Amino acid sequence: MTLRLDSLGQRYGEQVVLHGIDLTVPDGQLLCVVGPSGCGKSTLLRTVAGLQPAYEGSVSIDGTPVTGVPDQLAVVFQDYGRSLFPWLTVRDNVALPLRRRGLPRAERREQAERILERVGLEGAGRRHPWQLSGGMQQRVAIARALVCHPSLLLMDEPFGSLDAQTREDLEDLLLEVHRSDGATIVFVTHDIDESVYVADRVVVLSPGPASHPVLDLPVTLPAERDQITTRGLPEFVALRAEVGRAVRGSEPKAPAHPDPRP
Ligand SMILES: Nc1ncnc2c1ncn2[C@@H]1O[C@H](COP(=O)(O)OP(=O)(O)OP(=O)(O)O)[C@@H](O)[C@H]1O
Question: Which residues form the ABC transporter domain (predicted)?
Fold first, then answer.
């Protein structure tokens, strides 16, 4: 699915958060959005997801304006603890979108088990989310997002609260899913290394109100990525530095210290 933002603007009351954003994400691209805290990244995702109507401009998917939550869209948030239902088993959490689509129970269970196996959680279907580690819970949230084979996947800092090892494992899972399913993915992260490692393209937004991206960078690394080899490539290091400079350059400057001398 091709996602297009045209002169997109968003505000909360008097506060302008996004202004005049033009961005096209071609079908199958994994776009990372990076930018200083509060610049409007989550607002951008919520607007694309149809959860907030655009204040100005438009969002369209394959040429059709987004006016509500689009079919074929799935979202993964950072806060997996709140996005899973604790009273449902892992399998029923994952099968929930299938239930909404009216699939019979046996088929729901079978598809949920298949996707759980794919995210490395075979055998966990009968447990409850609170019996799992944070990394496993986020795998459940990813499984639930994938169960309907979305063409557009929005991820808002999905690995932000996980330990380094789990985070790397889930980055690799995301790359594998992207390679095999080919969905268009918009992935918000604070982590510059992570953005370069997973993305086909990185855009850096300016401090709010975010407008035209301050950097729009194709990631020209080989498609086959590996946590050790890829991160050691000179090209990776150069891309990371370029994104880092853009993020730092876009951060508001700290106020100058007053001269303490009398
Ligand atoms: N529901 C809301 N009501 C009012 N203001 C909001 C709301 N959601 C966000 N904001 C404000 O809009 C601005 C952008 O918030 P947003 O969460 O989109 O930024 P962000 O770039 O995702 O931040 P972070 O990186 O810290 O998650 C912030 O100033 C925030 O306080």
Answer: 3-232
